[in-house]
Each structure stands twice: as structure tokens, then as C-alpha cells.
């Protein structure tokens, strides 16, 4: 998506091919070659992890859509089932996502984020907020198709309080289209005041539902107008206001939602950094960031280097090891090669 379009609507993460009615794309001999590489890598006793990295680590999201379809056509087996049997650990989890088209991969990520006691709220927020309407509609439709469960119902059972309120706003897939006759300076002033009244200016408590509605459903250009007015009038940016008013995962999610509309590449760079912060790496979050945002990692890498003085490849080298590290580096190198 061009920079000019980003001003008016949120970024599409899914490749354009995902939105075509007929998902039987012309795959070409290159895709067949990758399928053959995978087949060779899993032949016999044990798998050849290096061969799998060579095959799937050099793919893009659109490639993986085609590979998932073509592998089943050629070998009459689901690629995800093959790789689930042959791989394990963080490497195996990444391979599972790479064996699926981008939408099904996100559905699998949501399932993994909801496993066990307590959910991975941060990962859920990155998937559910800051999305374009058509991405979100396709995600909900696909989740129901493969799991016969309503995604909104699943998330409502996993998240509570402010985390649910934020996710619920994102699940609506109701970002307003920018209309210069409606999204005026006057309305931006009204909404900035409304945010203040329901947040920092509220005498007791915060009305998070109204805050999230404005933050999540406003088109990027209009949210930028509100942000500038809010900062001028109240001395805080919207992200700073959310940091002041909210706590925990909801605070991180709300800030991410705002930045995905105002500065999406910086927002993603910050999330990669967050996955690597503290004691130990959040491998699930890191894996999902690299795979989900791969197509835009050239921009993200530039932002990351500007913000932190190191590129994404160096961060992966510092935080990961083994075949898992090699796989993530290969995915990054495909779209943002080191000079």
C-alpha cells in the first residue's frame, strides 16, 4: 500500500491475492520446485531442517498461499500436517505458520495465543487492532470456516475488562472511510474534547469503551488530526494519554492501535523490540511479528535501525539460536537484505 493511501485507511497485511474469489492461482514452476524441496527435506528418517529453511525461509506470504495449495495438489497431503510431524519447538511452530496461507496462519496464531491458563493478550491485540476492515472481515470468516466457532465469541471468553473492550472495537471491522466533509477540524476538536472528558479529564474513572471506539475506528488521517489537536490543547499525545490512563496489556494494546494508524512501521518495530525485552525472549510474539509483517519488513527494518541503532537481523542474532534463528533470518533477508 502506498504512503498516500496509508493516510486514509489502515494497512492491509494480507496479500491482494487473498481477496480473490477463486483461490486457485497460477502457481508456476517455481512453486512446484519449492514443494519438491520440502518433499525431499522430509523424506526418510528425520527431516532436513536446512532444506526446509532453504525452501520456506525464502518465501513471501503470497508464495506460501500458493505453496499450501500446490503441495496438496501434488502429494495429496496437507503441508501443515507434514511439517507438524517432522518439526518441533520454536522452529516447528514457525514452520506450522509458514505451511499455511497468511489468513489461516493468523487463525492458528490466535489458537496458540489462547492455549493454556491465561491468554497471550499482547499477541491477540496485535492481530485484532490496527487492521483494515477487509483484513478483519476475512480473518473472522476464515476462523469460522476452519474452526466452526465465532471469533468474537472466542475472544470474549479469553479476554476481560479493558483488554476485551479494546479487542471488541477492533473485531467490529468498522473503521470509518475518510470523508473530508465529515472528518473536519471542528469534529476533530469535538472528539479530542470527548477523549479528554472520558479519560484524563474525567473526575472518577475512565470510560474506556468510548476511548477505544474513537482510537480504533477513526481513519488514520482523521486520527492524526485529533492527535495534533489533543496535543496542542492538553499537552499530551494520544499515545501518552493512553499510557497515563490505562495499565498492563490494555495500555500496550491501545498504544499499538494508535501507532498502527499513525506510524505503523515504528509500531511494528517496537513490538519486535518488546518481544525481546526483559529476561528471555517471547518467541511466539517474535515469530508472529516476523511472519505476519514480512511484506513490510523493509520499512520496519529502517524504522527499527533509526529507533534502536541496530537492524532486525542483529536483534534476531542476539535473541535466538539454532535452526529457529536461521529461519527468521532467512525470512527477513528475503524482503530486507543486509547490505
Automatic annotation (TrEMBL):
Keywords: Annexin, Repeat. It holds the Pfam family Annexin. PANTHER family: ANNEXIN, ANNEXIN B11. This is Annexin. It comes from Chaetoceros debilis. GO terms for cellular component: cytoplasm; plasma membrane. PROSITE patterns: ANNEXIN_2 (PS51897). One of its GO terms (molecular function) is calcium ion binding. Belongs to the annexin family.
Amino acid at each position: 500500500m502506498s504512503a498516500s493511501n496509508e493516510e486514509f485507511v489502515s494497512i492491509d497485511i494480507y496479500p491482494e491475492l487473498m481477496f480473490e474469489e477463486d483461490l486457485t492461482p497460477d502457481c508456476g514452476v517455481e512453486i512446484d520446485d519449492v514443494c519438491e524441496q520440502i518433499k525431499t527435506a522430509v523424506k526418510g528418517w528425520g527431516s532436513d531442517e536446512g532444506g526446509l529453511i532453504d525452501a520456506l525461509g525464502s518465501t513471501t506470504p503470497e508464495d506460501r498461499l500458493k505453496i499450501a495449495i500446490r503441495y496438496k495438489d501434488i502429494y495429496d497431503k496437507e503441508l501443515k500436517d507434514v511439517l507438524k510431524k517432522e518439526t518441533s519447538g520454536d522452529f516447528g511452530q514457525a514452520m506450522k505458520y509458514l505451511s499455511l496461507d497468511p489468513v489461516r496462519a493468523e487463525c492458528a496464531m490466535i489458537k496458540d495465543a489462547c492455549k493454556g491458563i491465561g491468554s497471550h493478550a499482547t499477541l491477540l491485540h496485535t492481530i485484532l487492532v490496527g487492521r483494515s476492515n477487509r483484513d478483519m472481515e476475512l480473518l473472522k470468516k476464515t476462523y469460522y470456516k476452519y474452526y466452526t466457532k465465532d471469533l468474537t465469541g472466542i475472544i470474549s471468553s479469553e479476554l476481560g475488562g479493558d483488554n476485551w473492550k479494546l479487542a471488541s472495537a477492533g473485531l467490529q471491522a468498522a473503521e470509518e472511510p475518510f470523508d473530508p466533509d465529515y472528518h473536519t477540524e471542528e469534529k476533530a476538536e469535538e472528539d479530542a474534547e470527548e477523549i479528554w472528558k472520558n479519560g484524563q479529564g474525567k473526575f472518577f474513572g475512565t470510560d474506556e469503551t468510548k476511548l477505544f471506539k474513537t482510537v480504533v475506528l477513526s481513519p488514520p488521517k482523521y486520527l492524526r488530526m485529533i492527535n495534533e489537536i489533543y496535543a496542542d490543547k492538553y499537552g499530551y499525545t494520544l499515545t501518552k494519554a493512553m499510557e497515563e490512563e490505562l495499565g498492563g496489556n490494555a495500555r500496550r494494546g491501545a498504544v499499538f492501535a494508535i501507532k498502527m494508524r499513525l506510524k505503523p512501521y515504528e509500531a511494528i518495530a517496537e513490538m519486535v523490540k518488546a518481544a525481546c525485552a526483559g529476561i528471555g525472549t517471547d518467541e511466539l510474539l517474535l515469530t508472529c511479528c516476523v511472519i505476519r509483517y514480512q511484506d513490510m519488513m523493509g520499512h520496519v527494518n529502517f524504522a527499527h535501525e533509526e529507533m534502536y541503532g541496530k537492524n532486525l537481523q542483529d536483534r534476531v542474532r542476539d535473541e535466538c539460536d539454532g535452526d529457529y534463528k536461521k529461519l527468521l533470518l532467512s525470512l527477513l533477508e528475503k524482503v530486507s537484505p543486509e547490505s
